[in-house]
Amino acid sequence: MKRLYFSILLIVLGTCLLFGHVADSNTTTQKNTHPSTKRVAVLYFDDNSRFDSSTGCGCIPNFIGRIFGTKKKWDLEAGFATILNRKLAVTTVYQPISRDELLDAMAQMSLSRHDLKKLNKEQRAKLAELLNADVIVIGEIQKFNQSRMRANASRSLTESGREASSAPITASYMTGFAALAYRYRAHVQLNVKFYEASGSEITTAPISVTRYHSLAGTQVSGLQASVTEAGTDLRFGMTSEKKGTNVRPIVKPTELNKIKFATPKYDKTLFGHVTNEALIKVVLALRDSYGPNFITPWEEPSESDDQEKVVDEEVMKRPIKITYVDSEDPDMIYINAGSARGLAIDQKFDVYTDAQPIRDVDTGDILDYVKKKIATVAVVEIRNDRLSIVKIVEKTIDLKRGDVLKSTHTDVITQEKNKGDDNSENQ
């Protein structure tokens, strides 16, 4: 009997050790594996900011803007969704669902843009199913404005530098002295809701970002000096203003009026700074409330994390494909390859899409597709180890998500030549 109890005890201990080892292995595997991609559908941003200005800068009061302006200069609802999709694509973990996919799913459900704002839980679940979406994002723009405050002081100085009194001036000449100060304030406030594929709400994330840009200047006769947060400018007499090397945010209404929303030029404005910062916070809120846990491109890795970045061999073997085409700028195309694949700026690829299907002779089942070349693209920016942006060099039809990229013949010849040169040197 004692032997029986002892045998049972050994079996139990062995089983515990076995399962413990398996659990540890799974934990290690999950820790070292890159988080799986999550498909995210940004449905809309509802604009309740009352932003309406004939200048497009929000500097004119609303009622005056409605009198002199016929329509809004910037479409915030479409623009915020576009910029958020760009931020999601940069993470390589969140795959933004394109506008075309969303429109197709809406057509299947007979939904208009207005209907999106009245979806119930069941409709959200159905839409997520059609889109194959893991998460649905709905946003509200509560505040979006820019204001400017100005203060100035001026006085007259005599030749000796003393302050002039109300008595007649007898000095041989006078010079004007003026001190000016401007302070620009841009503010964005959002309310963003995240929903699961089941249609249930995950959380609501309030987002608020405010940024300032200060300008102070002093003018003495023909000499004018201005000091900003980014540097100092000097102007003498009527000479034109020299641009400094530091980049300053665009704040002037006349310049803002010429800029299109959600463009690279918009990113250089003070408005653009707060918009991008707010939408980065949206991505972080999605990561923290839904997952998976990963370090975004806007965060520094933890100092305690001493593990080297391991490139997944399976990822390296996957074909390079288009992962996202920007709806506002079709020439801005994201691909699922970066520095880890050895990509270089100006490197060219041919783009192929599925054309004629290859069917089984007996069953008629589709076995594969004949690949058709539709474009040539070149790398313009390498965002990280798994993401780059390419531009179109030439094309026959529009590119879409899933199209495959292959190195051009020129690149292959160059690579073979380099290998040959290396072998010659070694010999």
List the defining traits of the structure above:
Thrombin, subunit H, globular, alpha+beta, 13 strands, 33% strand, 427 residues, 29% helix, seven-stranded mixed beta sheet
Structure description:
The chain has helices spanning 2-32, 62-68, 76-91, 99-108, 121-131, 253-256, 270-289, 313-317, 409-426, and strands at residues 38-47, 94-96, 135-157, 175-196, 201-220, 223-228, 231-236, 320-325, 333-335, 348-359, 366-384, 387-395, 404-407. The protein starts with a helix and ends with a helix. Helices cover 29% and strands 33% of the residues. It has a 7-stranded mixed beta sheet with strand order 2-1-3-4-5-6-7. Strands 8-9-12-11-10-13 form a 6-stranded antiparallel beta barrel. It has 9 helices and 13 strands. Residues 16-34, 154-178, 217-245, 303-311 and 411-419 have low confidence and may be disordered. Strand 6 (223-228) and strand 7 form a beta hairpin.
Explain the layout of strands and helices.
Blueprint: H1 2-32, E1 38-47, H2 62-68, H3 76-91, E2 94-96, H4 99-108, H5 121-131, E3 135-157, E4 175-196, E5 201-220, E6 223-228, E7 231-236, H6 253-256, H7 270-289, H8 313-317, E8 320-325, E9 333-335, E10 348-359, E11 366-384, E12 387-395, E13 404-407, H9 409-426
Parallel strand pairs: 1-2, 1-3
Antiparallel strand pairs: 3-4, 4-5, 5-6, 6-7, 8-9, 8-13, 9-12, 10-11, 10-13, 11-12
